[in-house]
Write a structure and sequence with these properties.
globular; TIM Barrel; 12 helices; alpha/beta; eight-stranded mixed β-sheet; 20 strands; 427 residues; single chain; Urease, subunit C, domain 1; disordered N terminus
């Protein structure tokens, strides 16, 4: 935590405004040439629309010609710009002190640390999150690293606020699982076989613990003793959060899906999802497992490097396009910040389209918004512009998958946390 003043000095803060649309303030109406709602129901695109915000929530969204703006609302005319939901980044290591890869979190204590919690680590108002908000990322999942097989519990975090209470969207935000790669050098080396055994063993014990509590709560068993290591499984079994899985290489991604989702019936989504992982797209869709791709956007020619995936596929393959061609529809993007800066999440979607993702049904925008929100079990709160949801939205030059388009305004819960004209370009 001693690095916090140094980091804050590196990146100046822009204070969140207490203004129209925020909790307790007057209402806000934002007019724009196009509103992309990413709605679960109703129109996903509204031309010449208006977004109404009251008490930090979306009040209404519709065509300007037929949506009445209540008396006393502040009106912001965004002209030819677009409005879209705030972006959701599900692989973030940049909400706490992080310089030269230092992070105030030790997830290497044991190979499995399901009780480890990251919530003491993030710093409200830290510069890297202010930059994320300037890039249109309004919610991140701040998680442990991948040095151990089961690293602990992440936190869903709003990027633009200066205090802890406002910044927390949900805790626990996820349980971090890392398959293959980084955890293999833990202790004397555990390799894939032991990792699979360790994951299954730990998860089965956690499920058994949660079931004992379920029996007690239904009046069918005694009250169990609280075991902080396995409390997270009560949330997982209720669908209140998901397992975020650092997984790559076809065989390993396949094991993640078949074991965690298929055999153990736990909610899970894929992170990284690379090195042939796209070959699982059909099965991922069948078992309801979202694929969150990044920061690597392509698989390189199989025979031009070490053939980790053993897919036999020749040529560059865009990961998002690969999953889509295999039948997956729940495809999102991540940056693994600060590996790729969090504010460049928009660029990840652009690379997905550049390397073959069919965006004719707004797949790129949905992959930045509602799909990651649903994957993290907060689709009822963020990820789309629908009445009752948090008023997290952007005013942007145009389609976010076009890197020439920049964010002009960022609102989180109705508060303007970034204004390019006021704050300048932070990145």
């Amino acid at each position: 935590m001693m690095l916090a003043p140094f980091l804050l000095a590196l990146f100046p803060l822009a204070s969140a405004d207490a203004e129209a649309g925020a909790d307790g303030g007057p209402g806000l109406a934002v007019l724009a040439a196009k509103i992309v709602t990413c709605a679960e129901e109703g129109p996903e695109v509204i031309d010449r629309g208006v977004l109404l915000v009251k008490d930090g929530r979306v009040e209404a969204v519709g065509p300007a010609r037929s949506t009445e703006v209540p008396e006393g609302y502040e009106v912001v005319d965004a002209g030819d710009h677009w409005i879209m939901p705030g972006q959701v980044g599900l692989h973030c290591h940049a909400a706490g002190p992080n310089i030269f890869q230092f992070n105030d979190l030790n997830d290497r204590v044991a190979l499995a640390n399901p009780g480890l919690r990251v919530w003491p680590v993030p710093i409200p108002g830290i510069g890297m999150m202010k930059r994320a908000a300037a890039g249109g990322v309004t919610t991140v999942l701040y998680i442990p690293g991948s040095s151990s097989n089961i690293g602990g519990q992440g936190i869903l975090w709003k990027t633009g606020f200066d205090n802890f209470e406002d910044s927390v969207l949900r805790f626990p935000g996820s349980l971090k699982l890392a398959q293959w790669g980084n955890p293999e050098d833990w202790a004397m080396g555990v390799n894939m076989t032991f990792q699979n055994w360790n994951t299954r063993n730990t998860f089965k014990r956690g499920i058994a613990y949660a079931k004992r509590w379920e029996a007690f709560e239904s009046g069918e068993g005694p009250e169990p003793e609280i075991d902080i290591q396995f409390e997270i499984f009560r949330h997982l079994r209720k669908g209140e959060c998901a397992i975020s899985t650092h997984t790559q290489m076809y065989q390993v991604v396949l094991m993640t899906i078949t074991m965690v989702a298929g055999e153990l019936n736990l909610p899970v989504f894929l992170d990284h999802s690379s090195v042939g992982g796209w070959l699982t797209g059909g099965l991922a869709e069948e078992l309801g497992v979202p694929a969150i791709c990044g920061p690597r956007s392509v698989d390189t020619p199989a025979r031009g490097m070490i053939n980790w995936a053993r897919t036999g596929y020749e040529g560059f393959r865009g990961l998002a396009a690969g999953y889509q061609e295999e039948g997956a529809t729940q495809i999102g993007f991540n940056t693994d910040s600060p590996i790729i800066p969090q504010e460049e999440l928009q660029l990840q979607a652009g690379m997905g389209v550049r390397y073959g993702l069919d965006d004719s049904d707004l797949a790129a925008i949905r992959g930045l918004t509602i799909i990651p929100a649903r994957a993290a079990k907060v689709g009822d709160l963020v990820g789309s512009l629908e009445p009752g949801k948090h008023a997290d939205f952007l005013v942007i030059d145009g389609h976010p998958a076009d890197p020439r388009n920049a964010v002009e305004l960022t609102y989180i819960e109705g508060r303007r946390v970034y204004d390019a004209e006021r704050d300048g370009r932070l990145w």
